[in-house]
């Protein structure tokens, strides 16, 4: 607390990101990064962009990147927004579309940044509890102040089928509906094709997960022209150059390497399926994951203890000291070698 802080700063409850340890090298399965490097084409493009042109401001409207992303989904550029990671886009979207007079709805167990944004903009939030199997009860989302659904959800990894997303949109036509598809490429079906039918639908995606570019900070939003205009109004009232030249170059190139994207995504999915079976064989319960992480719980060993013991063995996973999910761990899918080491460490803990 400082006397120089505004009442807003004093009131905030900021997000605490997953640990990026500096003390030693861990097998890092705690922040849902992709274990494979970005496409070599993206790395080369970033290298080529690291030159004299860095003295110049980047393209404030990200034209080339937006054209690429639009073409990828068969959209018009006016239906696409690019931002500095999907976190920034979500922050812009909360400001652009939600009114403090009404309650914005999101699941009670979900990406914890939503609560932070609601607080930042003085919004009221209505948290809708997940069902007993950690699924999002879509029919309970019928508010007046907007809806945010991550699909798949984090940290539970469960996917809402597209038919249910359509049902959600049918039930909520008068307010913005944000579908956060950070993990959609690991087995889900994107809601992007629905944006032409529902002018209130904003689909948010990222290059951080399935495209291995978390370090570049690039995200997208897809929606009607009126929603994209709203995001641009916020952006241009804040920082008109959201993406730097290196990020623009790398992001454009990542869309030019579909084969690499498909190959690495398929590897992550195959590893997830294998690890899910191995974890179940060690006695763990787990949700059905369509993401690049699994959400696991042991019936008799405390999650916090497993978390600590894994850390001692050099494996970092995510523990949530939070009601209802404090018996669970979220484990990102690494390479096969990393997951073999994780399973070995887990077996030692379970069998000790
Ligand atoms: N949404 C969800 C559900 C996430 O888990 C994350 C990653 N922590 C993000 C959005 C943000 O991703 P990024 O800002 O890297 O695009």
Automatic annotation (TrEMBL):
Gene3D superfamilies: Aspartate Aminotransferase, domain 1, Type I PLP-dependent aspartate aminotransferase-like (Major domain)
Cofactor(s) the protein requires to work: pyridoxal 5'-phosphate
Enzyme category, top tier: transferase
Catalyzed reactions per annotation: L-histidinol phosphate + 2-oxoglutarate = 3-(imidazol-4-yl)-2-oxopropyl phosphate + L-glutamate
Modified residues (N6-(pyridoxal phosphate)lysine): 209
Recorded superkingdom: Bacteria
Molecular function terms from GO: histidinol-phosphate transaminase activity; pyridoxal phosphate binding
Entry keyword set: Amino-acid biosynthesis, Aminotransferase, Histidine biosynthesis, Pyridoxal phosphate, Transferase
CDD domains with a match to the protein in the record: AAT_like
Domain named Aminotransferase class I/classII large: residues: 25-346
GO biological process: L-histidine biosynthetic process
Record-listed E.C. numbers: 2.6.1.9
A Pfam family: Aminotran_1_2
Associated pathway: Amino-acid biosynthesis; L-histidine biosynthesis; L-histidine from 5-phospho-alpha-D-ribose 1-diphosphate: step 7/9
Cited InterPro entries: Aminotrans_II_pyridoxalP_BS, Aminotransferase_I/II_large, HisP_aminotrans, HistidinolP_aminotransfase, PyrdxlP-dep_Trfase, PyrdxlP-dep_Trfase_major, PyrdxlP-dep_Trfase_small
PANTHER family xref list: HISTIDINOL-PHOSPHATE AMINOTRANSFERASE, HISTIDINOL-PHOSPHATE AMINOTRANSFERASE 2
Family, per entry: Belongs to the class-II pyridoxal-phosphate-dependent aminotransferase family. Histidinol-phosphate aminotransferase subfamily.
Subunit structure comment from the entry: Homodimer.
Protein name: Histidinol-phosphate aminotransferase
Originating species: Paenibacillus arenilitoris
Organism taxonomic ancestry: Bacteria, Bacillati, Bacillota, Bacilli, Bacillales
Gene of this entry: hisC
């Amino acid at each position: 607390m400082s006397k120089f802080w505004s009442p807003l700063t004093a009131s905030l409850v900021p997000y605490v990101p997953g640990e990026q340890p500096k003390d030693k090298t861990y097998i890092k399965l705690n922040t849902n990064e992709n274990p494979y490097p970005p496409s070599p084409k993206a790395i080369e493009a970033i290298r080529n962009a690291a030159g004299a042109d860095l003295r110049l401001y980047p393209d404030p409207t990200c034209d080339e990147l937006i054209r690429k992303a639009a073409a990828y989904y068969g959209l018009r550029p006016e239906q696409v927004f690019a931002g500095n990671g999907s976190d920034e886009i979500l922050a812009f979207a909360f400001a652009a579309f939600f009114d403090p007079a009404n309650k914005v709805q999101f699941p009670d167990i979900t990406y914890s940044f939503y609560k932070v944004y609601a607080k930042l903009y003085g919004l009221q939030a209505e948290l809708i509890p997940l069902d007993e199997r950690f699924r999002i009860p879509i029919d309970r989302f019928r508010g007046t102040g907007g809806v945010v659904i991550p699909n798949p959800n984090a940290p539970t990894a469960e996917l809402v089928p597209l038919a249910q997303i359509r049902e959600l949109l049918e039930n909520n036509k008068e307010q913005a509906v944000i579908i956060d598809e950070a993990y959609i490429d690991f087995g889900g079906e994107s809601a992007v094709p629905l944006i032409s039918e529902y002018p209130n639908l904003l689909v948010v995606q990222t290059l951080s997960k399935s495209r291995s570019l978390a370090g570049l900070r690039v995200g997208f939003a897809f929606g009607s022209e009126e929603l994209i205009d709203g995001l641009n109004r916020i952006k241009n009232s804040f920082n008109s150059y959201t993406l730097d030249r290196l990020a623009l170059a790398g992001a454009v190139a990542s869309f030019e390497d579909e084969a690499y994207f498909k190959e690495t995504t398929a590897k992550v999915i195959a590893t997830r399926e294998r690890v899910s079976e191995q974890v179940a064989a060690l006695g763990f319960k787990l949700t059905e994951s369509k993401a690049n992480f699994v959400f696991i719980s042991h019936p008799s060993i405390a999650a916090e203890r497993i978390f600590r013991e894994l850390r001692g063995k050099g494996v970092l996973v995510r523990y949530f000291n939070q009601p209802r999910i404090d018996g669970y761990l979220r484990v990102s899918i690494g390479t096969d070698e990393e997951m073999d080491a994780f399973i070995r460490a887990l077996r030692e803990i379970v069998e000790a």
